[in-house]
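Q: Could you predict the 3D structure of DNA damage-inducible transcript 4-like protein?
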Amino acid sequence: MVYTQALVFGNGMTVVSEEDRLVEFMKKFVHQFTSSSKKDGQSLEANCEYAEAIKSSSVDWLDPGLSMEDCVEEALQLELAKQIELCLSDAKASLLHCQELLLPRRLTARVARDVMLSAADEPCGLRGALIHVLLETKGVLQPLGSITPDRCVTPTFELSIVLKADPDGWAALKNFFVADKVLTLHAGYRLVKRKLYSSASPIVRDFD
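A: Sure. Here are the predicted structure tokens for DNA damage-inducible transcript 4-like protein:
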């Protein structure tokens, strides 16, 4: 298992390694909204608004290898991955009581991709999501934070991201409330989707 060292001091974090397939103007756009740590979800909201604008425009100077839809989806996925990392960073000291958090390579990128897929069939897409990030330790769920992609849209569904602690990477989770320890996350995770406009049972999907 290859791990990425991240979230070591303060709000520092390792940026998700993404294949550089975005055209130049998309890179500049993402950088504009992600260069500073915005904890109120405004950057993701701005990306969602931009996605709607670009889909309705006729831009003919994009990279011919990528469709406009692909550019928009990739920008949103990158920003969502960063928001998940920011959520983990905020919870690191206050809730997880650890100094260092180790993430499997591309974990947040994979989670963001699957969240995007789960939102694809929703009336408002990702803009209608209310995302909760939780950590499962020994069968107990601990809330770490929430992400609201667009505060101007009434949520149509809740999506819980259940990350898992790796028992082999943290001395079987002993001394949970002792500070200055390292927490390693497992590569597997779970997504639980609940439609707020339907009485149907939640949809649970596990990813290895």
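Q: Anything worth pointing out?
A: The chain has four helices and seven strands.
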